[in-house]
Amino acid sequence: EQEEQQSCKMKWSLVSVLLLISILKNTLGERFFISAPSVFHVGAKEKVLVQMGGEYLNKVVTVYLEDQGALMSEKKKTQCSTENDINIVELMIDRNRWSESKRRSSKKPYLDLVAEVFGDRKRKITKVLVSDHRGYIFIQTDQPMYNPTQTVKYRIFTLDHMFRPYQGTIITSVFNAAGNRIMKSLKNSEKGIFSGHFPIPSVSESGTFKITAHYDDDEAKVAVREFKVQKFVLPSFEVSIGAERRYILLNDQQFDFTISAMYSYGERVNGAYHCEFGFMTIGQKSPHIISGLELTGSVIDGRATATLQLKNIDWKQLNQTLSDLQNSGSQLFVGVFVTNIQNGEVQEEKLYLPIFPHKYKIDLSRTRSYFIPGYPVEVVAVVRYPDGTPAVGVPVNISIASQQDSRITNEYGGVYSAFNFNATSSFRVDVSSDGLQESKNIEPASSPTGSYLYISFTHKVYNVGESLFLTFRTPTAPTNGGYIYYMVLSRGMIITKGSLVHGTLTTGSVSITADMVPFFRLIGYYHGNNGDIIADSVWVDVRDECEIKVTVSTQNR
C-alpha cells in the first residue's frame, strides 16, 4: 500500500526521469536520492542528480554504469555537505566498451546504474535503457537533376540526439541508377557540417542516383538523398495544387483550391486544366474516381482557381457517405492535369485530403488529473487544427460545476483558467469550442499524512531571458524543517536545479534559458516527516527562439 501511495505521489518520475533510490526512513537519520535520464545515449554525457541528507552528509558517493560487473563509464564521485545541496555528475557510456558488450550478448539494451556510498557495503542499483542513436544526418545537393559529366555538389549536416552540431566520422557513398557504388569516402564533420563534390561519369545510365551517409559504426541508420541523372531534354513544367487547408471537414460544403503551372526557369504556362475527384481507401493502390465531378477551365499566366462542390457528390450511388469515408480512414483524391496550349505538353499533380469530423482538437492532457482540496483548480487546454497546427485566437469556454470562464487561445493554441471552489469529491471539467466539447474527470488527491505540494505560476508563453516566478504551497510544513528541491527537465535532460527553505508558502524564480525551448517541466519535491517524497510538477511553454543568431549578407565584388 505504501508503495502504491509513493508511486502516485511520484508520477513525475515518468517524465524522462527515473527514480533510483527513493528514500531511507528519516527515523534512521538517512536520506539518499538519485535521479537520472530514463534513456542513456551512447557517447553522450548524461546528467545524474544526487541529493543526500542526514547521516549521508559529507559522505562520498560514487556513481557509474556497468554491465554484468564490467565498467561501462567513468566512476564519478560527489558529496553533499549541507541539506540544501543538489549535485550533478555527468556519465558517458564508453562506445568501445558498449560495442564489445553487445558482441558478447544479444540481450536487451540495458545497463546497471550503480551508486556506492563510502562505508556502506550495499550498493544501490537500477537498470537504465541504452540507445545507440547517435544523432541525425541531413544531406543536401545543389540541384535535384543532373546531366552526365556534371559535378554534384553536396553538403552533409551531422547533429546529435539533441539536434546540436556533432563532430564525428562519417562514411559517405554514392550509388548509380543500377544500384552500384561508384564512390566511398571517410570524412570528419567538423562543427557538424562538411561539403564535397564528385563528377557524374559520362557513360552513366539515366535514372535515380543516391548519396548515403552514416556514422562509422552505425550502418543500420543511414541517411539518403536521391537525385536524378538524365541526358539533356527540354525542360518540363511543374503543376502544384494550393489550398488554405489540406484536409476536409464533415460539414464542408465545398473545397476551394488553386492550380499553378510553371517551368523551373520561371516561364508561366498558358493552357487548360482538367480535374477529377475520387477517394482512396486503406489498402488500395489507386483511387476510386467518382464520375460526373470533373472540372475544366483555363490556365492563364500559370494560374487557375477551381471549386469542388461536395454537395454535388451522389452519395447514394456510391452507397456510402462522407462520414463513412472518415470512419474508415479514407482520403479524398484530387487529380489535376494541365495542358500547355503552345506545345501540347501535359503534366499532372495529385492531392490526397484526409477527412476530419471537427474543425478543432482539444487536448486536456496538461490539466492535472487530481486536485488538492482548498487549492485552486487550474485548467490548461490546447486547441489545435486537425493537422496538428495550433489554433490561434479561438474562443474557448471552460466550465467546472456552476462556474464558467471564456478565454482566447494564445500563439500556441493554449488557454489557462483557475477556479476557486470548495470540493471534496471528484468533478468534471468541460472545455468547448465551435461545437466540440472535451471533458476530463478530476479526482481528489489522497495522502494518509495530509502532506501535499502545490506549485503555481503565471501561465503564459515565456521568452528566453525572462524569469519564471514560482510559488510552492504546502498545507503544513514538515516538523523537521528542511528544503523544497526543484529541477528543470527539457527534452529528457536535467537543465538546472535548486533548493529553497521550506515553509507553508515558499517563493522562488528560475531564469529561462535557450536550452529550455520550446517547453520544459519543473518538478518540485520535499521530504515528509515519515520519509515520503511529496512532489508536484508544472509544464511551461517557451517561445521558440534560435540559440545562435545567423546573419546572411552579400558582398559586392
TrEMBL record:
Tell me which Gene Ontology terms the entry assigns under biological process.
Answer: complement activation
Span of the signal peptide: 1-29
Q: Which GO terms describe its molecular function?
A: serine-type endopeptidase inhibitor activity
* Alpha-2-macroglobulin bait region domain location: 453-557
Which Pfam families does the record cross-reference, listed alphabetically? A2M_BRD (PF07703), MG1 (PF17790), MG2 (PF01835), MG3 (PF17791), MG4 (PF17789)
CC annotations in GO: extracellular space
Keywords annotated in UniProt: Glycoprotein, Protease inhibitor, Serine protease inhibitor, Signal
Family recorded in the similarity comment: Belongs to the protease inhibitor I39 (alpha-2-macroglobulin) family.
> What PANTHER family does its record include?
COMPLEMENT C4-B (PTHR11412:SF144), MACROGLOBULIN / COMPLEMENT (PTHR11412)
Name-wise, this protein is CO4A
Protein source organism: Poeciliopsis prolifica
